[in-house]
Specification:
The structure is a single chain. The protein has one domain. Helix content is 84%, strand content 0%. It has 2 helices and no strands. The N and C termini lie far apart (111 Å).
């Protein structure tokens, strides 16, 4: 099989073609990243709103602990009334 001679112009053309293909791929990737960045900002804002709504809300385990303590105090007070 005979080898084809490659000129500098051929080589330059191949390199330019590779750069152009990479540039297009980078544009596509950046477009995808931009869309995801917008989604992340939207989710971040949504989480901030949810956190704000949850401020001051007592967690279930905290509620159960307080409930048990109040019940214990009520028992003690009921025994003292007798």
């Amino acid at each position: 099989m005979a080898k084809k001679k490659i000129t500098l112009e051929d080589l330059a053309g191949m390199i330019a073609k590779g750069f152009n293909e990479n540039t297009e791929q980078h544009r596509q990737i950046l477009g995808i990243l931009d869309k995801h960045a917008v989604m992340l900002v939207d989710h971040s804002e949504r989480l901030k709103r949810i956190e704000k709504k949850l401020e001051g809300i007592v967690y279930r385990n905290e509620f159960e602990e307080l409930k048990a303590r109040v019940e214990e105090i009520e028992k003690i007070l009921a025994m003292k009334k007798k």
